[in-house]
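Pasting as-is:
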Amino acid sequence: MTSLPRPDERRLAAECERLLAFGAKLALPEGGAAYLDAEGEPDPAQGVHTWITARTAHVYSLASLLGASGGEAIADAALAGLSGRLRDGERGGWFHALDADGKPDRAGGKSCYDHAFVLLAASSALLAGRPGAAPLLADAAEVYLERFWDERAGLPLDAWDADFERAEDYRGLNSTMHSVEAFLAVADALEATGEPGAAAWRDRAASAARFAAGLAASHGDRLPEHFGPDWTPDLELNRERPEDRFKPFGSTPGHGLEWSRLMLHVEAAVGGDEALAAAAARLFDRAAADGWDADGAEGFVYTVDWDGVPVVRRRMHWVLAEGIAAAAALHRRTGEDRYADRYATWWDYAERRLIDRDGGSWWHELDQRNRPSASVWDGKPDLYHAVQATLLPRLPLAPTLARALREGLIGGRA
C-alpha cells in the first residue's frame, strides 16, 4: 500500500500546533469556551455555546495528550463550563447556550446535537486524565440514554423543550451522525478505564450507522437530513431557508463525507461489517461528484438538491476538512490510489484558499468565488474539524482519537 502524499507527518503536526495556538484565548474565567472572531479574539456578544464549549474540551483534551503547551488549562476551563453554568441544575441536561449576559437560552431547548458533543468531550477528557471528567461522563451518559436514545428505533430523538417536558417531532441525521462519533468515544473511554458498558455503546453506533447506510442506498447516496417522528424523510424542509445553520435544505455533501469516515470507524470498532465499508465508498463518491468543483469554481458547494444541482454555493471549511479525513480513512481501508489523489487535491485547496496564515486558523466560509465570507458563519469559532483533519490521517481507524493518542498510536501510515 502506498503512503498518503504530502502534507507529511511533520507538516500535519505543524498545522495542528498552529491551529491550537489560535485558540489561546478560548478559556473563559467563569467556565466555558469563548466564541472567537476572525482574529482569535473572544466575541462576548455571541454568548457561550454548549457545542462550542464541548468541542473545545474535546480538542484541547487531545492537545493535552499530544503534550501541547496550554492545552490542559483550556480543556479544564471548557469542562468547568459543562459541569457548571451550561448545565441545567434543575431539570438536567445542558442548555443550548448562554446569552451575552450569561442567562440560559431557554428558547433553544435541549438538543441531541449538544448532548452528543458533551459525551464526546467527557470521553476525551477522561482519557486525557482531566479532573471532573468521570462524573461528567456518567452524568452525560445518563441524560443521553434517558432523554435522547430511542431503543426501539435504534436511533436518537433530536430535541426537547428546555424543561424536558415535550420532545419535538423532528428527527435529524446530523445529531445522529455526531451521536455515532460520541458513542464510539464513550466505548473507548469506558473500556480503557476499566468500566463496563463499552459493547452497548458500540452496538448503538452500529445501529445508527447501518440505518444511514440503508438510507443512502434508497436515495442515490444523497443522504436526507430531516425526518418526521417515524423517520420518514422530509425532503422539502427549509427549501425557503436553504442556508439554515443546522437544518439546510437538500443534501449536504459534507455530511456524506463525514458519514463515510464514521462508517469506517464503526466497521473497525465492531469488526466484520463490510456493508458499511461499501456504503462508505459510495457516499464518498457521491459527495465528491455532487460537491467538488460543481459550479465552475474549485471547492465544495455546501448543499445540493435531490438531482445534485448546487443550492448553497458557499464553501464551508468543515466540508473540506471532512473530505480530507474521509479520503485518508478510505485510503487506509482500501489502499486505492484514487483516495490518495483526492487527499492531495483537497489539502492543496486548503493551503491556497482556507488556511489563513495571517489571521490564524482556517477561514470558516468562502463565497462561490472563494473569497472569505460570513453569510452563514461569523468569525472562526470552531477548531474541531480542522484539528481532526491534521490527526486522523496519522491514526488508525480504531480506536477513536483520544484513546489512540493515549496509546501512542500517532504517526501510523495509511
